[in-house]
Design goal:
The structure is a homodimer of 80-residue chains. Chain A is an alpha+beta fold and 80 residues long. Chain A is built from two helices and three strands. The longest helix of chain A is centred in the C-terminal third of the chain and has 13 residues. The radius of gyration of chain A is 16 Å and the shape is elongated. Chain A starts with a strand and ends with a strand. At the A-B interface, β1, α1, β2 and α2 of A face β1, α1, β2 and α2 of B.
Chain lengths: 80, 80
């Protein structure tokens, strides 16, 4: 079993609606020190061992897990 | 400026609809090696320097950024 953690974030300059909403809500709750909130995805993926796993996980990100037009992603392999 | 990264995940045993959907979609796309996908949130937070920042960020998680009933979170301070 191979395990990966994938971090998906909006590219710089792309509007992040959940982040903007959380930012405003926190300030309204009294956390006036909040400057910026960006909310992306934290994906934990487990796949069966096989050939070319790392390349296939990159493909999965490009095809489905992220939207490369507006998002960046970072893949970390976390199994031994 | 203090910077934090917060990882929000569903607790074990809590159904993760986006993760389950991505898992099925990846298998349908031919990635039959996929065993499990869990999708949580990756939050980047920047706040002004002040007193008791770490405790206030924990409060923000409990009140708004995560739902402690069904989600776990991990906070990492990433500035210097």
């Amino acid at each position: 079993m191979a395990r990966y953690e994938i971090y998906v974030t909006y590219k710089d300059g792309i509007f992040d609606p959940p982040g903007a909403t959380a930012e405003r809500a926190l300030v309204n709750l009294g956390y006036e020190e909040v400057e910026r909130v960006r909310i992306g995805k934290y994906i934990q993926l487990a796949i069966e061992d096989g050939d070319g796993e790392d390349a296939r996980v990159k493909e999965m990100c490009d095809k489905l897990l992220a939207n490369p037009v507006i998002e960046d992603y970072r893949i970390e392999r976390v199994d031994g």
